[in-house]
Amino acid sequence: MQRDEEGDHAAALATLASAAESGLPMALYVYAQTRHAADPADEEAYGLLETVAEARGEFAVEAAGVLADRAKERRDLPAALRWFGQLAETKPDAAPLAVAHLGELCYWLGHHDQAVDFYTRTLDGTDDPVLVAEAAYRVGEILAGRGDAAGAVPLLRRAAATGDATYAPQAARLLGTLPA
């Protein structure tokens, strides 16, 4: 690591590769992350992260987080379900955020029934204003789009009440178009 800080990236990678051969989760994780930082398209780095995450030992949560984010970026729902699911299962305090990410991905993909399910689970699992703002707004938006103003209004009010800079104004605007 010191070699990398001094600018000798190739030597640092060689040292980390040698350490990773031990199979120790920390060594594999650091090596994979260093490779990933140098080249986000490095498929072998992701393979190493999968090895660490699948072992469900030390650094598994961190590796699963990287893999979950990658799956979301790639719009890969099956992989996102796997890795965000592992995060939610092994780190319960991260579950609301993991489920919110799944809701957002399903929303992007147009899988609105699944988005509603994941966002509802987010709302049931947290009072975090940032997560509540997005989840309540998105479910309210979907319900309003389906003509369910009665279901949408309380959710949109909840989103607006968070004061979130992104979703509160959108919720207020959408509320203005719906019957109270």
From TrEMBL:
Name the SUPFAM superfamilies for this protein. HCP-like
Top-level lineage group? Bacteria
Kindly provide the name given to this protein in its UniProt entry.
Answer: Tetratricopeptide repeat-containing protein
Which species is listed as the source? Actinocatenispora rupis
Q: Which taxonomic lineage is given here?
A: Bacteria, Bacillati, Actinomycetota, Actinomycetes, Micromonosporales
